[in-house]
Amino acid sequence: MLKPRSTPTRELVNLDGVWRFALDSRVDDTPWLGTLQTPLEAAVPASYNDQFTDPAVRKHVGWVYYQRTVRVPRGWTNDDVLLRFDAATHAARVYVDDALAGEHVGGYTPFDVDITDLVPAGGEFRLTVAVSGDLTNETIPPGKIEIGATGRQKQVYFHDFFNYAGLARSVWLYSRPKARIEDIVVITGFEGDEGTVEYTVATSGEAQVRVRLADTTGALVAEADGAQGVLTVPNVTLWKPGAAYLYELTAELISEDEVVDSYPLAVGVRTVETRGYEFLINGEPFYFTGFGKHEDTAIRGKGHDDAFLVHDFQLLDWVGANSFRTSHYPYAEEVLEFADRHGIVVIDETAAVGLNMGVVGGMTGTPPFPTFSEQYANDKTQAAHAQHLRELITRDRNHPSVVMWSIANEPASNEEGAREYFEPLVKLARELDPTRPLTYSVVMFATFKNDLIVDLFDVVSINRYYGWYIAGGELDVAEAYLRGDLQGWIDRVEKPIMMSEYGADTEPGLHSVWEDRVWTEEYQIAYLEANHRIFDQFPQFVGEHVWNFADFATDNGLHRVDGNKKGVFTRDRKPKAAARALRARWRGLDGRKPGSA
User: Fold this and answer.
1) N or C, which terminus of the chain has less Cβ within 10 Å?
2) How confident is the model at residue 83, as a pLDDT?
3) 558 vs 577, residue with greater confidence
4) Got the DSSP string for 502-538?
5) Which of 237, 267, 297 finishes a domain?
């Protein structure tokens, strides 16, 4: 799916701003049939939950409605006209005037709605978008809705971040030609100083395809005719972690010597592979330093914000991080484009978090019923997971910053049924993109002894909290546990092994002279250092992603005071003491294993 862009043959209008807003419980059954009768307005892009002071809005279960008027530009008479939603969390219905124009399920991937036959060029229409944040056992991520003693609905979910909902990313109106470029896929490689860009251009309509590749100065370095081919790039400059270089590929559709459609695509020439215990980028061993992150800020919730995007990447650079994981869902496309331009490595993760009934059982890991069953993760859940995987990989497969797909976070990979659930998804992911390694984040309950699916994947990514949830405050014990854990995985599989989560909740400003006092800034540093001592003992270890980059909102149970506090930065991006400790460790590593030459 091509992201809408302004090109010589395409135009777009941004529809962000303040929209009319209402809850389904406060309007009639068909609010899209007229002007929305509501005193409320909501900002787009932003989650709606924290914009209002009414607690009924913050934890609303059901549909909400956004509405505004839109005018189609007069000059779009001969083009198709579409609405583009960069995300609607978690399901959407789109109404143009009184008509249902389109629907989508999946809260973190974009979708288009073709309105060409509904509104003429120059015409104005009433756009109403119904959005539901509801989660069930057949959605990704999963959850359930309970009815409390008072009759109020309550959303229950099995992931540890707030279930923000709404139009959290931009909305667009755009045009495209009738005969057009539908999609572009590139696969890059190199040998010596010669690069290759293998391309496939899908089109609508009979026309000739021409492809050109330019360097950063705009100079033409390669060109070809045809919908498929390989461009050869002499004296190639590779895209590297920390040293991004992007060529621009322009695909043109030509009919009767006229360019009827044109689309540009940024291309970074690089390779990714695993070999034994090594993770290789451009044939060189790479060591991940960075974080699991969240799209989470005050007021906006999961709303994309360019100022936070820029500042977060500045903090990544300041602390010496070279990578992050899009925990636990695909991030906005602007985030990946920024990573492409600045040489930050990304592990791109699906929204499949919470596929684990063992979490409900607490640290015993004993599920109330099997995770992979008709009661929870069933065939419909798997189908939703597969569709999400298709949309994620189709959206992000051309980004050089994306080096690996993460299929799920902390699934019950130790339970019966896990292999039957995941094996078809792994096959699908490899069919959609055979060029990138696959991983999943392994939950504490899944060990080198009982995990049932690790052989299907390329990289072992483990989430471990020795010294926090297990052996909290006893770092000598935690080190022993972690040492044995890593050795067990190394003995079982000859694959790269990294830590995809490790961290300790820390209240900023809480201090102690005793390093074993949990929640203090001193303990967060001591906890990280204990983990690092063990990491550095294993040459097979390829990376460390601290949980988390910044504090983030959760559902605020008794064990969460104002959110999850495992951030190295506060929610408003102030550094805790651990940030400087990480900076001292990471800066200068330049993608190398600590202690390596």
Assistant:
1) C
2) 98
3) 577
4) ----B-TT---SSTT-TBSHHHHHHHHHHHHHHHTT-
5) 267
* pLDDT on residue 148: 83
Active-site residue, from 252, 295, 349, 501: 501
Burial of 305 from C-beta contacts in 10 A (0-12 / 13-18 / 19+): middle
Biggest alpha carbon distance in the chain? 78
- HEC string for 3-50: CCCCECCEEEEECCEEEEEEEHHHCCCCHHHCCCCCCEEEEECCCCCC
Q: Give the whole-angstrom CA distance, residue 391 versus residue 388.
A: 5
Question: What pLDDT sits at residue 369?
Answer: 84
- Report the chain's terminal Cα–Cα distance, integer Å: 42
HEC string of 145-204? EEECCCCCEEEEECCCCCCCCECCCCEEEEEECCCEEEEEEEEEEEECCEEEEEEEEEEE
- Is 80 exceeded by the pLDDT of residue 361? no
Is pLDDT of 184 > 60? yes
Provide the CATH number for the domain around residue 125: 2.60.120.260
Residue of 252, 295, 410, 521 marked catalytic: 410
Per the structure, the complete domain to which residue 433 belongs is given by 286-586
501 belongs to the catalytic site: yes
Q: Residue 222: enclosing H or E segment and its boundaries?
A: strand 220-225
**CA–CA dist 268, 247 (Å, integer):** 6
Is 272 among the domain residues?
no
Length reported for the chain: 597
Do the Cβ atoms of 460 and 497 come closer than 8 Å? yes
Q: What is the pLDDT of residues 495-509, one digit of tens each?
A: 999 999 999 999 999
Is 146 a known active-site residue? Answer: no
The Cα–Cα gap between 98 and 82 comes to: 17
**Full-model pTM:** 0.95
Q: What is the CATH number of the domain that holds 210?
A: 2.60.40.10
